[in-house]
């Protein structure tokens, strides 16, 4: 398929999926899921052409791996949320004390973020310059050198920050404080540090300083 046509179809399916979600209901979710599935197939089949790299480039495999992981991870997260909403874990949680339940929730939160951190951190430095997968900020998608710097930093930070997620749990931090730490102390650092450093680099490079 022509890469421009593939991009157009992906954009159309993305919008259609969002509109289906906004409509709500079982039908809306089904349509959104179908749009996402078709969009993934189109992207995976045309990933090299869309990313402007040759099919035999080893980075194509990295791109496909990241894309498949992201799709499986999102599906698993949705299925888990549905299971919780349906009360499938109620029997298990009823046997826990309040302290055990609090710890289990925090461990689950830590694992939920640590897994993609570890996976994306390992693959980030290997991702080719593209507009579909990676840390897609206005300045990283405009300059390949800026892209490389941002993703190299992301790779260095990911494993330490993933491990750091479990430290407050072991230390007994309460849920409210841990939720704040999860968002501002770890997730924002993971995205913010490479984002800010690459932005400064981009500004200095193109401002002549």
Please, could you describe this protein's structure?
Helix 7 runs antiparallel to helix 9 (175-207). The protein has nine helices and no strands. The longest helix has 33 residues, at 175-207. It starts with a helix and ends with a helix. 20% of the residues are buried. It is globular, with a radius of gyration of 20 Å. Helices cover 78% and strands 0% of the residues. The model has no long low-confidence stretch (mean pLDDT 85). The chain has a domain at 89-207. It has 209 residues and is mostly helical.
Briefly, what is this?
With 209 residues, the chain is mostly helical. It has 9 helices and no strands.
Please tell me how large the radius of gyration is: 20 Å
Low-confidence stretches: none
- H and E string: HHHHHHHHH
The major β-sheet equals:
none
- Number of E-type strands: 0
**Helical proportion, percent range:** over 70%
Topology overview:
Elements: H1 3-23, H2 25-45, H3 47-50, H4 58-85, H5 90-94, H6 98-123, H7 144-164, H8 167-171, H9 175-207
Helix pairs in contact: 1-2, 4-6, 6-7, 6-9, 7-9
Annotation keywords:
78% helix, globular, 209 residues, single chain, mainly alpha
